[in-house]
Amino acid sequence: MSDDVHEVVIVGAGFAGICAAIRLKDAGIDDFVMLERADDVGGTWRDNRYPGVAVDIPSVTYQFSFAQKSDWRRVFARGAEVKDYVDDVVDRYGLREHVRFNTEVVDAEFDEDDHRWRVRTAGGRTLSARFLISAHGVFSKAKRPDIDGVEDFAGKTIHTLHWDDDHDLTGERVAVIGTGATSVQLVPEIAKKVERLDVYQRTPIWVVPRPDVRVPPAVRRLFGALPPARWAARAAVSAGIEIAMLLGVTNHTRLPFLVKGIRKLAERHLERQVPDPELRRRLRPQYEFGCKRPALSNDYWRTFTRDNVDLVTEKIQRILPHGIETVDGQVREIDTLILATGFQFLEYDSVPGYPLRGEGGVDLRDWWVDNRYQAYEGISVTGFPNLFLIPAPHFATSWSWLVMVESQTRHAQRVISHALRNGATYAGVRPDAQRRFYREMDTGHEKTLFLNPSCAGSNTYYLDRDGRPSIVRPQSSVTARWRANRFPLDDYELRAS
Ligand code: NAP
């Protein structure tokens, strides 16, 4: 079908897809379409609408460098304000007309004869794209716990990724399974309205205070009138986070005391919030701070001191139609079961979440099983030409998803522009370039916190099925940005069909 032949197909209209589209437009490439399985843009900020959802790095850094908002209402924006920002960027850059909503990609295959990706959708259409940017994001597939009986619960079950705004928890008996960053935001909010709340914890989480306040109107006016003031605030916050992550986590073996210092801060926070030493002992992680994603909250730990909230640390035996049974035989009856059990990430079927077949019909998922998780510059894989994955292994420099996305999309745009300039129909990363990058990443990982023995028992998702922190790019985001702008284009082999 001629109307479905494009230079570029972008899968997903979250921040990564949006940034990719802006990059293409800036480079003068207008023949692209964005396929979005939902009926709205925004990815994670469209989907995550649970009570308490908010960013947990300051808003000034959680925005594109080229589209800065001067009037963030809070230091840590609530989810709804981030979603408004997404909508504003999409409209400002005229992207809505490029998006096909309710269009889920079910698989994609590289045609080696004419160097095009055939992208199939759930609706039975096939699109043809010279280049495919799969902006599938990190947290788009809900993970349901592998607990006996979870499908048999007779009350209401809600995964935090699919929050049901119409379900009122007021006066209910509620269980939350999971104590990750989502649970830390959710638990204090719902504790105020439910009759009883049982929080099932498998691995405790480190929490530090959250310096969140409303941004005074005078500061917002200043940021609006004087962009350099806004840039300075962003630069200062970014530098602080970057240096802490780089020295404490990425190069942990050099300065291990930094992380210990932050752990002491978290320990004091716990002592202040929870006077009971026994409850404190149960809430305190035994692994080092940073091994697992920590959270920021001023009221999470304190919530467990409420009369209507219980921390349950016994292992769950099974879920019954009317409640949850733990291994000690106790059954706690509930009306609503909330699964704060996270997302499928770097699991066989999760990145990108649909089968991709490259040269020789090789399935990317199998390629990663055979070759371990790896991707050149965290975005492309040898044998899968004209394809850019956001994210792919080795993408995560540290903190702001948007900072990473800006670098990744710049990489993709450089390769696409280079191929078009040279009349090439094929741009595939050379195996030796990918091997070189992989060795660099693997060596760098040895210095990270994640492979340190102090992370034992953290059950961290930073480690993949081979026990390697393959999502991590053990470099600063400044390096990643520099490399996105400067990596040798010769690392890609160009051909013309
Ligand atoms: P998560 O960090 O993966 O946490 C899932 C929780 O569910 C963990 O406590 C896990 O226990 C527990 N769990 C999973 N399966 C279980 C089972 N079978 N039995 C008992 N417990 C089980 O997921 P999340 O809290 O949704 O957060 C995911 C990521 O989203 C975060 O790391 C963060 O990057 C992002 N996030 C960001 C923000 C923000 O920036 N504002 C907010 C929320 C989330 P174990 O620890 O033992 O595995």
TrEMBL record:
Pfam families documented for this protein: Pyr_redox_3 (PF13738)
GO MF term list: monooxygenase activity
Domain of life of the source: Bacteria
Keywords: Monooxygenase, Oxidoreductase
Record-listed E.C. numbers: 1.14.13.-
UniProt keyword annotation of Oxidoreductase present: yes
Name under which the protein is recorded: Flavin-containing monooxygenase
